[in-house]
Write the structure tokens for this entry.
Amino acid sequence: MLTTFFDWQHSLTSLSGPSYLAVWIVQPEFAHSSQVVTAIQSQLDRYKHIFGEPSPDGPPLPAEYQKLPSADKLMWQTYPWCILVDSFDYPDGWPAWALEKPHYLCEPEDNDAYLMVQTGWVWVGMLPEAAYLSVSPETSVLTP
């Protein structure tokens, strides 16, 4: 994933305008949810704020990931990793396993209720903001 991140970083230098590029490492769902993510234009704000605020009390990036080549070039922030548990799937009440974990209830006006359940953590790795030059869109580049 880190190789892909740095390859994509190089490719993004040819775009004009800002972009979002990050590595998401998810535990315990590494194989299903970890990914390299990029966004431009109308999707930029969505991805910048998709996890809300970082969790200052969350665990640091696990040592096995910190040791990977080039992982130290990224700034890592920790966020709760939550899954959606739909009331449609549990008509007789929320499952005990979900209620035992940190969770919150969402009751949208136009849809069925659902439970957001924290099942782990996601570490988001990005280049430090200082790596992005503030120049006109025509010459916007990322520095190494």
Notes: The chain is about 20% helix and 30% strand.
